[in-house]
Amino acid sequence: MDDHLYFNEQHLALREMVQAFARDEVAPIAGRHDEDQTFPWETVKGMADLGLLGVPWPEELGGAGFDTLAYTIAIHELAKVCASHSITISAHTTLGTSPIVHFGSQEQRERFVPLLATGKVIGGFGLTEPGAGSDAGGTRTVAVRKGDHYVLNGTKRFITHGGVGEVFLVTAVTDPTLGTKGISSFILTKETCDLEAARKVGIGHSDELPVMKGFRAGKKEDKLGWRASDTRELIFEDVEVPVENRLGAEGQGFVNFMQTLDAGRVGVAALSLGLAEGALGEALKYSIERKQFGQSIAHFQGVSFQLADMATEVEAGKHLVYHAAWLAQHGKPYRKEASMAKLFCSELAMRATIKAVQIHGGYGYTKDYPVERMMRDAKVCEIGEGTSEIQRIVISRQMLRDLGA
Ligand SMILES: Cc1cc2nc3c(=O)[nH]c(=O)nc-3n(C[C@H](O)[C@H](O)[C@H](O)COP(=O)(O)OP(=O)(O)OC[C@H]3O[C@@H](n4cnc5c(N)ncnc54)[C@H](O)[C@@H]3O)c2cc1C
Fold first, then answer.
1. Ligand 1 centroid distance, CA of 390 (Å)
2. Domains with residue ranges and CATH for the chain
3. Is the pTM of this model over 0.85?
4. What's the pLDDT tens digit per position in 353-395?
5. Cα–Cα distance, 334 to 320 (Å, whole number)
6. What is the pLDDT of residues 97-149, one digit of tens each?
């Protein structure tokens, strides 16, 4: 892709900075955190220091003052080396912060965004429930108004940063007679489960935030991939949430979260693209180094054709991802394009990482090379923030809508 199609000098400088950070700081520790299934606090602190936890937000709210394209570049570049670091940026920024930026009151923005954008605290987004996954409108968590507060009861499942995070945006039913129009969203706060580690590195915890009684993280998921990303249940037992913590008007929660997911899908698409491109880079390098039958395996047509297919698809993925990001940045409709980018790139990440393992032969099946981690990390891209089936539904519905059908 011609860089200047989408990027200015600032974007290219940011890309170089993230590439250097990913190569020098993330690559050496990615395998260990995958193995131990631990949150990489030290490098998350490094990302916070570089402004990567608030790339698109204005400087007056503690952000780096860049734009959506810059943010997309950061996700894409980090994922070439480690998908867990990449999803940390994506889940924290789009899911855990953007609803406050876009739908919050001025007071909420000033109170929470600077803490999130600087990485002082980690944020998350609680939509999925045990009985409400693809059918997110089936939310069972309830919020009952009692004077100046709501009382929340329910459980969320598979929440990124559920343990390490302190600020969460969650949906709950405020009027069960109205279907999805009876779903509202709220800002909830708790203490990180990793207080000692957070205090040690100096990010991830703020004494300024109230610990809401009855709100806690539940079971930590033991996952196939994204193992350095923290995924847990969130449990609400008679949690008293002040009315001023409601995000937007009553009944707006579902619509707002669906809009948030459009942006999130561009993020997961960029992550998936990074995984595919990272795997291509590893496969290319290995295929030149590895000799069989007296020559580099890259010279066998059976291998070189696979590399050519991967490179072609990565190039197509770049256009889908950066086109969707460009539309979002310019305030144009992009729901269909976000879903197309996510659908194509997540399935590409799976295909490309499987090919990369194949090109590494037996070595690709071991932890000596990063491609086996990449292959495991790729699978969830077809599931999180809407499965591939749901993306196909979104795309086809939008096509029919465009035709007025
Ligand atoms: C690592 C990880 C991190 C996550 N992080 C978050 C997070 O931070 N916040 C959050 O809210 N959620 C998060 N999720 C949840 C994720 O968004 C859901 O897992 C996903 O939306 C699918 O829901 P489900 O798992 O309940 O599957 P289900 O909805 O039960 O789907 C099961 C299968 O049925 C298919 N299916 C369902 N409905 C249809 C249909 N109408 N047509 C065709 N096929 C259909 C699906 O495509 C899938 O193949 C995360 C999940 C994972 C694994």
1. 9
2. 3-101 (1.10.540.10), 122-250 (2.40.110.10), 256-402 (1.20.140.10)
3. yes
4. 999 999 999 999 999 999 999 999 999 999 999 999 999 999 9
5. 11
6. 999 999 999 999 999 999 999 999 999 999 999 999 999 999 999 999 999 99
Specify the ligand 1 atom closest to the Cα of 95. Answer: 8
What tokens were used for 218? 């539940």
Query: Which residue shows structure tokens 């891209």?
Result: 381
Does residue 384's CB lie within 6 angstroms of at least one atom of ligand 1? Answer: yes
Is residue 226 in contact with ligand 1, taking CB distance under 6 Å?
yes
